[in-house]
Amino acid sequence: MIEYKTENELSLEEFRTVLVSSTLGQRRPVNEPERLRKMLEHGNLIITARDNGRLIGVSRSLTDYAFCTYLSDLAVDEAYQKQGIGKELIRQTKLAAPAAKLILLAAPAAISYYPKIGMKQFQHCYYIDDINDLK
Predict the structure, then answer these.
(1) What's the CA dihedral at 112, 72, 76, 95 to 10 degrees?
(2) Is the pLDDT of residue 62 over 90?
(3) Which domains does the chain have, with CATH numbers?
């Protein structure tokens, strides 16, 4: 049975391991421990999925619990995908901050996943990676 809980003190190594095993590690700084540490330190809502104590999924978010929850990382070990674990991590994240709108940017490989579980797409999202791009 998969156990879900809030774990805002998740270890760096467990976080890194689940990122790599989920393929999200391809788009995260898994070889930069200091950046990963900061990601964990400043994520204020971390929901985990564990199978007999082993971390198999994580939802890492930043939230004010009132208006907005940004789900920054949703990772499920590839061996456990297509079992509803990602959907349940999202559900648990939303339950932790029910008044806040849950927002995320989909990884290219997951674009078709989110509408299937009932999430709505918003067309007007913008981002900037490099301060030098700001005009």
Answers:
(1) -90
(2) yes
(3) 2-133 (3.40.630.30)
